[in-house]
Amino acid sequence: MTLADQPTPVPDGAPGQPAKRGRRADAERNRAAIMEAAGAVFAEHGGTVDVREIARRSGVGMGTLYRHFPTKDDLLLTVLEKQFGSWLADAHQQATATEDPWQALSGFFEQMLTTQAGNRAVVESYTTRGGPTASCAQRCYAFIDELRTRCMDAGLLRPDVTTDDLVLLSGSLSQAVLTTADSRPGQWRRLLRISLDGLSSRNTEPLPEPAPSTEPEPEPSTSPGRSTS
């Protein structure tokens, strides 16, 4: 093949390039529309909703939806991770700006449950897994531990309360949000106040000892060349 026979590279802006960019822009708009519609639909109906309703609200066909998200679980986790990340960032910013450790802790619970009261899918994920994904659950655990430590250092939290206690409490209150959403919306606020009063350092009666964990101990990790003895 001579140089004259070789195909000439198509420079940016030449015929054909704008069409490709246009297709990418259309795909991005479709994905954004699907994400927006899915966020609203999952919040209203939870994770069991039919994806055809999401396609209808987003104005795309089912084929387009499945090209972006092969399964409903893919779409649900993507939406929940985005929502969870945004909420946790806001919660962290609010807690950091709050000087009083107790107000930071109670404000976290209030913000968490208020958010969940308007998002059924988030509540479902939080009550079953502590968050949409294991990574989300770990980030939330670390944040709750920070809040607990601040309150403990200030002498505001009863000394035998653990981070695990607060995580389990948040899950229990989330379940209360879910079960009373239709029949008694807002009932969780009373339960939250009762729970916060019980966490106060004013209460000096010792808590019952926690039951031993039934989860298996993790296997010790090893590195090449390092002895485990």
From TrEMBL:
GO terms for MF: DNA-binding transcription factor activity; transcription cis-regulatory region binding
Top-rank taxon, per record: Bacteria
Keywords for the protein's UniProt record, in alphabetical order: DNA-binding, Transcription, Transcription regulation
Compositional bias segments (type: Pro residues): 207-221
One Pfam assignment: TetR_C_43
Entry-linked Gene3D superfamilies: Tetracycline Repressor, domain 2 (1.10.357.10)
Region annotated Disordered, chain positions: 1-28, 199-229
Binding region for DNA: 50-69
Domain HTH tetR-type residue range list: 28-87
Protein's UniProt name: TetR/AcrR family transcriptional regulator
